[in-house]
Write a structure and sequence with these properties.
The protein is built from 14 helices and 15 strands. The chain is of the alpha+beta class. The protein has a nine-stranded antiparallel β-sheet with strand order 1-9-10-11-12-13-14-2-3, with helices on both faces. Strand 2 and strand 3 form a beta hairpin.
């Protein structure tokens, strides 16, 4: 479905709106479990969500927020501050850096190009970007499913958290700069053989978007997703360093226990670009994911391609720029996680797109907080029956989107 088609449907009123990285091998997973409709979901446990946010704050997050959109009903929860200097309370209206949730936006644009017959998933990346990669066997599908074997350059860049960040905070990289950093290393596996999360894949995705549209990724996102869905609080500002308008400041946790948090709000995020540079709000993310799963952004065939899963672990599978998480109550949710210096994000929706949760904290490099925030999914989609899994007991993440080869906690 082209963006032009979507804009026409938006005007006619037919559009209805309402990390994590695991660098291990995975196996094919063609199952379709997790198709539970919203009608079968338990009522969201808002107090449970609040409890998760309070726990995250005690564990080091200055502030935490969550928003649930459920068939026209909106639930909101917040705790802590958006700005440690002013003490302003964090809000679900605050904008924040969404990190690798950006990857889902990039995948959607490429799937729209598939619908427009400008791209084929099983064609070599080098067919579209001649000479970019050393192996003609790496296809577009391999890149979008993290099965290319391309090394993640952020493992080197951020092996030391704060010094690594400060070294690139104001730098502007080209896409080719980042790909070259990856190609200095041997590939992690042969194309298609295994899942291995790598930001390099979605840098390549950005290059494909720009080559095939003749536009910057900023313009492609704006014309194809932001404007048609009326995402008024969603931006791609690279290489500018400021978050526009009302926003939560982001605080990076140093590697040294007890060291002071580093305000990481202002940065180019040029190390991420199409892999992690979008700014948004919880409400806009819920609108986006709901529209995606309800078939409003791509054709049904392309949405099906996005949901051809590769198993990552016992409760997680990865499609094309889309993650499926199966919760304790048997419900599966669809979306992505995000980490960028100063922020963690969980953004997921139900199979039918009618219940969505986006939750964020304004800190990163804190594996305990990362695991705790998983509990927002349990409370939002499983209800009160998920209480036993709240907090760090639900933790399943030992890696994140930044430097996925670096063990967290």
């Amino acid at each position: 479905m082209s963006s032009q088609m979507l804009r026409r449907s938006t005007v006619s009123g037919t559009v209805l709106l309402s990390l994590l990285a695991v660098p291990t091998h995975a196996t094919a997973d063609s199952t379709s479990t997790g198709s539970t409709s919203t009608a079968a979901l338990a009522k969201p446990d808002l107090e449970g969500v609040r409890a998760v946010l309070r726990t995250a704050r005690r564990q080091g997050a200055p502030g935490a927020l969550a928003r649930i959109d459920d068939r026209g009903t909106v639930y909101r929860a917040v705790t802590g501050v958006a700005d440690r200097k002013t003490g302003r309370t964090i809000s679900t209206l605050d904008r924040f850096r969404i990190g690798s949730v950006t990857k889902t936006f990039s995948a959607v644009v490429l799937l729209q190009l598939v619908d427009e017959k400008k791209l084929k998933l099983d064609t070599s990346v080098n067919h579209y970007l001649p000479g970019l990669l050393a192996d003609d066997g790496i296809t577009v599908r391999h890149v979008l499913s993290h099965r290319s074997g391309l090394y993640d350059y952020t493992n080197d860049m951020f092996a030391s958290t704060v010094p690594g960040f400060e070294a690139v905070r104001t730098k502007v990289f080209s896409y080719r700069d980042l790909v070259k950093r990856s190609l200095r290393h041997a590939r992690t596996n042969r194309p298609g053989a295994a899942y291995s999360y790598s930001n390099t894949n979605f840098v390549v995705a950005g290059m494909l978007i720009e080559k095939l549209t003749g536009q910057s990724v900023r313009t492609a996102y704006q014309d194809r997703i932001f404007d048609p869905l009326k995402l008024r609080d969603t931006f791609y500002v690279h290489p500018d360093t400021k978050l526009p308008g009302r926003h939560a400041r982001g605080y990076l946790t140093p590697d040294t226990p007890g060291a002071a948090l580093v305000d990481a709000t202002r940065q180019t995020t040029s190390w991420a670009q199409s892999a992690g540079s979008i700014i948004s709000t919880a409400g806009d993310l819920n609108t986006f994911l709901s529209a995606l799963l309800r078939g409003k952004l791509t054709s049904a065939a392309s949405l099906d391609q996005m949901q051809r899963w590769w198993k990552v672990n016992s409760n997680t599978s990865y499609g094309l720029g889309l993650r499926r998480r199966t919760l304790s109550c048997g419900v599966s949710v669809y979306g992505h996680t995000g980490a960028v210096q100063g922020y963690y994000t969980y953004a997921f929706t139900s199979k039918d797109g009618r219940r969505s949760l986006s939750a964020a904290v304004n800190t990163s490099n804190n594996g305990t907080v990362l695991n705790t925030m998983f509990g927002t999914l349990e409370s939002a989609f499983c209800g009160k029956g998920a209480k036993a899994l709240r907090g760090s007991a639900a933790g399943v993440e030992r890696y994140e989107d930044i430097a996925p080869g670096v063990l967290r906690d």
